Amino acid sequence: MSEEEKNQEQNEETKPENVTPAIGQDLESSVVTNELTEESKPEEGKPEESGEEEDELTGIEEATELEIVQKVTKKDSKKKKKRRGDKSGQDKKADSEWIEKVVQIRRVTKVVKGGKKLSFRAVIIVGNAKGQVGVGVGKAIEVISAIQKGVADAKKNLVTIPLVKSTIPHQIIGRGGAAKVLLKPAREGTGIKAGGSARTVLELGGVGDILSKSLGSRSPLNVARATLDGLKHLRKFDEVAKLRNMSVKEMVVAN
């Protein structure tokens, strides 16, 4: 036999041995894959179980305690902000009722060891035009801070005016330092017959008809304090009748 024939016989003997194990491996792998796919398929009639469970009440998917606490605190903070905003709105409305007027600003000096200390004095009148008025004084190095101090001082010293319609119940003289101010009731339509700081006090106090005359010092602060003193000592007929244990008619007849 030639060498070529021998080589052909050897190749024919080796071919079936090499092919058979590969075919067996393919069969085994296909069987395994089929078993896995059958196991992975859901059973008929059973719903698929989802890995993420939703909370029925809140709708939060597997939320941690920290996330829930953060959401709750955010809601509370929003409510607090709204409440604070409401309070600030009420304060603004209360402040808007008061009318502030600057009567006088003067530069004053105080002698100290090293020389003179300069500051500003502001005379402020505050009122709501509904029967309440006050006079205040503020001193500071700056004008703005002096005005703020004067407003705070005026609000501390408010006086309520016992009005009868648009005028005062009776005649009175008010005193403040060296100043004297005469106040008289007037008919409707007369207006405010006054000048200077006395006029601003009466306007902010809500007095519509009145006669007045300054009898002493003309300094704005003293005149304003004298006018406020007169308004403070006013009394209505009902109050005087109660003090005398009489009715208003008996008191009028007696006078």
**SS summary, helix count:** 7
The separation of the N and C termini measures: 169 Å
CATH architecture of the domain at 99-243: 2-Layer Sandwich
Shape: elongated
N-to-C SSE string, H for helix and E for strand: HHEEEHEEEEHEHHH
Largest sheet geometry: 4 strands, antiparallel
Describe this structure in words.
It contains seven helices and eight strands; from the N terminus they run ααβββαββββαβααα. It has 255 residues and is α+β, with helices and mostly antiparallel strands.
Layout of secondary structure:
Blueprint: H1 3-40, H2 65-97, E1 99-112, E2 115-127, E3 132-140, H3 143-156, E4 158-160, E5 172-176, E6 179-185, E7 192-193, H4 197-205, E8 210-214, H5 220-232, H6 237-243, H7 248-254
Parallel strand pairs: 7-8
Antiparallel strand pairs: 1-2, 2-3, 3-4, 5-6, 6-8
Helix pairs in contact: 4-5
Key words describing this protein structure:
255 residues, Ribosomal Protein S5, domain 2, alpha+beta, 4-stranded antiparallel β-sheet, 4-stranded mixed β-sheet, elongated, 23% strand
Summarize the structure in short.
The protein is α+β, with helices and mostly antiparallel strands.
